[in-house]
Amino acid sequence: MYIVHSTFNVPPEKADEVISIYQKRSGLVDQAEGFQRFLLLQNEKKSGEITVHMEWDTKKHFMTWVQGEDFKRIHELEKKYPDQGLAAIVPSIDKFKVVAY
After folding, report:
1. Inter-residue contact 53 to 40 (CB < 8 Å)
2. Cβ contact 89:10 at 8 Å
3. Which residue numbers delimit the ABM domain (predicted)?
4. In the chain, how many domains are there?
């Protein structure tokens, strides 16, 4: 299994807005080969810290998704988001290979 975390910090007063966006996400990734699960995580102590957690069968499956057209299409939508301050936030990406269950 391969896990990817994309963590970003938004102003705490914008956290609910960002969460709402993800609750309405397209779900395109759910159809990607090797995709297992998506979770949106909010830090309990820092409400503006949001993490996208994605689980994949393998690193290769994740990389295929990132290089695909659906990934590009989803991320192009960010350029049209009304709050360009939020759209401009660059996440911190962490990738993990699961080595034990």
Report:
1. yes
2. yes
3. 2-90
4. 1
Cα 3 to Cα 15, 19, 24, 45, 97: the distances in Å are: 23, 20, 22, 23, 6
Q: Structural domain of residue 35, as residue ranges?
A: 2-97
How much is the pLDDT for 47? Answer: 95
Q: What CATH number is associated with residue 34?
A: 3.30.70.100
- Give 14-73 as a DSSP string: GHHHHHHHHHT---GGGGSTTEEEEEEEE-SS-TTEEEEEEEES-HHHHHHHHTSHHHHH
The DSSP output letter for 99 is: -
Q: How many CA atoms lie within 13 A of 76 on its CB side?
A: 6
